[in-house]
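dude i think i finally got it to work??
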Amino acid sequence: MLLALVTPSEQIINGFLGVWLTLQQFHFKPKVNSHEFRSLQRKLLLEALSNELPSGTIRFSSKVVSIEESGFYKLVHLADGTILKTKVLIGCDGVNSVVAKWLGFKNPAFTGRCAIRACVDFKCSHGIGTKFKQFFGRGCRSGFVPLDDTTVYWFFTWTPSSSSQEKEIEDNPAEMKRLVLSKLENVPDEIRGIIENTNLDGIISSPLRYRHPWELLWGNISKDNVCVAGDALHPMTPEIGQGGCAALEDGVVLARCLAEALLKEPSGEKGDREECKRIEMGLNKYAKERRWRSIALISIAYMVGFIELGDGKMMYFLRDKVSAYIPGLKLKMAEFDCGKLSIS
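look at this
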């Protein structure tokens, strides 16, 4: 059973001036169903999902090198020389997806921004309550999210002045911590304490990339018996917290569409051809359902990030004026019904 702390509100603070901008409650009357704002470590979610699968289903450390066509089947070549023959190939291979490239997508674009992320376990009560605290200023954005009574997740997004500055700290957790502390000099001591108490081996940095929305408008989300899902489909910036959530939506829709295609057992060569056609139609249906949702998520996430990390007096003024509305926008993007997993 997975347990996650309910986060009742988001506190937005001007990190440069050290003053509150807004306190937004995370509850409203949704159109679909009532929901709560909870944060969960991705590692725990993946473990819970993998534990439901038969032993040996997941093959770890298996990098895809290339894809070869063999009739309706696809041959997936792995880095260790293994070749997998697939009836259905679902590319969930992340931002640098080989399957997405096979479908014709370009590499995700760099936003010019980077993110430093970490998790710290205090072993006892962290003492910062349940609010999601965000700090803005100097072209940076930082957030602190209590995951439970003892664990806090924090992030820091910023715009490096050059590619060399990005590379200088990319594999240097000590330098990452120093950078974050120097940028957040005006935050409360309890917040600085979270960063100072973070173990270096728990800090990572990565460039923020996204897929241009127009690529999804015209591109092939599916082709024959191949499709993409998760970050391979809709890599997005993290400002609205919907990357992992959207991947779960993909999974529900994809499972439903494929189940409809595979319900009927094939019989003979003609039956195999009919099954292949049903698979193709099922994946096309999945692509149609997820196209506009993916475009909306990528676009809104990028727009929110552009506003929140904007530098200069005009951007400060704009951010301070619209900051009260951004938490509500995030909740609106989470208010989506992807339907039930079961089929009739």
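The radius of gyration is 22 Å.
im so relieved honestly
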